[in-house]
Amino acid sequence: APVPPDPLYVFEGVEVFGLRKLPRDEVLKLIGMPAPGTRFNLEQGEFTPYLLESKPRLLAAHPLQFCRYSMVTYPPTHTFRVTVDLVEPGDERRMRFDPPPTGTVEDPEGLIAAWGAYQQTYWKLRREGAVPEKSVGGCQALTCYGGFNHPQLAPLEGPFIDGVPRNTAALVRVLREDRDDSKRMTAAILLSYVRSREELVRHLVPAVRDPFEGVRNEALRLLGTAQEAQPKVLIPLESVLEALAFPLSSDRNKAAWALVRIVETEGAARRARILEQSGDVLLEMAGMQQAIDREPARKVLTVLAGRDLGEDVGPWREWVARTRKAPTVH
User: Which InterPro entries does the record associate with it (predicted)?
Assistant: First the structure.
């Protein structure tokens, strides 16, 4: 019989991203979290009270422009970490998003509703242990969101394979114009069934500035996937570097992976530009314990440097400072 996932996870710690002037030690003290190594049943919400108590305490002490607590779980090791993303007063340039759309766009051929039904079935099977916690493959889209490798899921993909190419323009309208955040996010996901990477990139780039983080997350994820293993750069560096500075971990880690794909394609061709605009963010990410931040940042820096300077962020910081000062060779 299928075995449901183990709900017990080990807390590994909390980190703060986006500090500019506030003292880190003081902020961490205000955040206050249980000792690393403490176990929590996440399904029963045992960790939730810590989150609910922490944020008001932090905001009462400091009037931040933005504050978001993100909890990232790592199923293979049954561990989790918390990142507190902040935007201090004066740093609002990191939040240049488009205004929220105000329209209502019809769901083309019921594709968005069909995706919702698929997701309900998929997560029911996940909770029952009938599909693995980390599914890879099993779909005909550019990237899979759980896949269809189960008898109850397999019949559900057909409408997307045929319907998305037929309704691409209508889905792009949903992505651009619909006021419903969830509909826009689903439209972005469904566009992964578009058959041309170049077309997909063209549709998704404007969504990088969407006011809803779920849309930005999916757009950046797909842009990185579209760029992977391609002989030329398909995605605009400008949009990726801008997103790297956005407030949320979900923004910057997807942007960082997209940047990984760019530098894997072109090497260090635009190193000076990347380091000038985003070197500080990459260094901050590279120094984090949170793997979703650290790993892509270090991959980018390694390609740009032409060598791996190791786990300690100190040598990377020195290299970035030295490289920024070096004259550009034309």
Answer: ARM-like, ARM-type_fold
Q: What is the pLDDT of residues 125-155, one digit of tens each?
A: 998 989 887 656 789 999 998 899 999 999 9
Tokens of 56: 């008001």
Per-residue tokens: 199: 């077309």
Tell which CATH classification among 3.40.50.1450, 1.10.3720.10, 3.40.50.300, 3.10.20.310 matches the domain 8-95: 3.10.20.310
Token pair listed for 83: 């990142």
**How is the chain split into domains, by residue range?**
8-95, 97-195, 235-330
Q: What is the pTM of this model?
A: 0.92
